[in-house]
């Protein structure tokens, strides 16, 4: 990195020496523990059987066991040698530096799904100890250092899970200070992010800040500097990055005169691209640039993998440093697996590289549970010893393992949703109490201090009591003459060909051809928007890069992915739902008055190997209704009747899996989301002709109502939605009572054109 010194870390998170520990660290006695260190952190998990022979995709269970083992071993190593917080000039002793921060990135992702809460307790203790602060306050130049921003990912993760404003405030202030420099209009001789590693450290933090706050300035500024850095360091002919501009010079070349392409530098970029794309809005103008860059790098990197499954420190001259090297390799396993899991890379092409690399990494896990053969901190290839370790390797091994485990799952859509808010009891259980000040001694002093803290809590000013408005900018209302209720439909090429429709009560969208090209996981599910105004609002909400934030009129927080969303359909065959991709063509017939009506076509899609099916569907949403009426005609190369599954996506959080109501007699399937403290809950209802019902089913993603359909003959069904923070329904009961009182007409919609 910028300072190629051997880093140390501070209280709670000291780095270990290069010499490996003989085995899992044993827990010390409580009395011997330094303040703030928990005994559980000092014991690693038992060593599991590791995937070292390339075979089939390893099971999720076995992969997660390896990930938990390495993570717990690393935490044990960090907590076993705590250092007192330095007050001198040697700031490399701070565990808020980039070395430790890159471990926290992986550990934070693990803590989202791990049953072992000590990882989250450890991360919470580290963040609290450093008061959610950042290094680099000595000068303007150091305040711009991307390395010091890396720990911001930990703070953003804790904020996303806890919603505590103080967690995010120091980071946001630092980013606010940096934005004008990143967003400068003119190119300058020196870059802010002048080294390739910086693209892992800072840009994902900026993108995520926009996702969390709804303020586009962070993402837009980072996008500008990212492209400036790429313009200087990307070498199109090689499909690789130089570490920095020194490596263009004759004085920084290999012995044979060729340019040096450092493995870990390119690993930082690929890993950074994956994290960046996870937070980048699907309609962000530059998204295609980053996807193209990621795909180019993936193709090049896959071809540079060595026979042992690793990549050498010097990518294009592997013989210069023939030793095994994991600190670059671990990024490539992570990035390639990530690309497969998110539909950006062809599974058949890249999966063998992922499995070969994963097996190779596991062959280098030392007896102490850490990943060996890791090049030490620096800025170019050097020789590596088998016992060398690094926090950045452990952290990225966790990321790689999580993606290898996910190879067993369906493709995931982008951008990724932020984790759900933790319940109060989870926050309490995973937030260690800070160690008492050393001045507090004896039971009498402890009682006095406790009474003082209770008085402080009872007597102090609490801004929450004033219901202070959110810092998120509210959505500006439309002009007075556009606030009348009306039903509208709009094709949105500015939003990657979405088709939007809404009235005075509900709002929905489906996805079009442009998004299908950009986002391979997108499909024919139906999206639901939460709405609390009587006039149209979707167009104005979409003008914000993060339209998933409530700005007073509603938001889109419903994650469709590859599921059916609210009323998407497919053909149920052999206990599997076979679905179409995004709509192909459209025709808007009515908009702006008392009805929104449009038709779309879906290209033929396979149903196993027995037949193909295509669809034409008409949507009609009248003013004053919560229900969209849909009339579908399915065509097929076979006249055999079809069993069609109309679905509602499964949604769950820490408060449960929601409530499903199946009513065959009345042809209804209903779902009410589990309570969501941040956004409220959506209710979805489907209504079909009871005479056509064949039963109910479900798959991994959807609850389904099954109906019998004859190819070539239209059929009609209804989809309705409600939001408990909207204007009409405050509870599940009020919504279901409303649905029960509705009557539906199942004759097909006439195909008239006005």
Describe this structure in words.
- The protein is of the alpha+beta class.
- The chain folds into two domains: 30-406, Glycosyltransferase (Alpha/alpha barrel), CATH 1.50.10; 486-740, Beta-galactosidase, Chain A, domain 5.
- It is built from 19 helices and 20 strands.
- The chain has helices at 60-79, 98-113, 118-129, 140-143, 152-162, 165-182, 198-201, 203-213, 217-233, 263-279, 287-303, 329-341, 347-362, 391-406, 424-429, 442-459, 513-518, 538-542, 732-740, and strands spanning 234-235, 240-241, 488-492, 498-502, 507-510, 527-531, 554-555, 566-573, 576-578, 585-590, 595-607, 611-622, 627-636, 642-649, 659-663, 668-672, 682-688, 693-698, 702-709, 715-723.
- The longest helix is centred in the first third of the chain and has 20 residues, at 60-79.
- It is globular and about 75 Å long.
- The termini are far apart.
- 49% of the residues are buried.
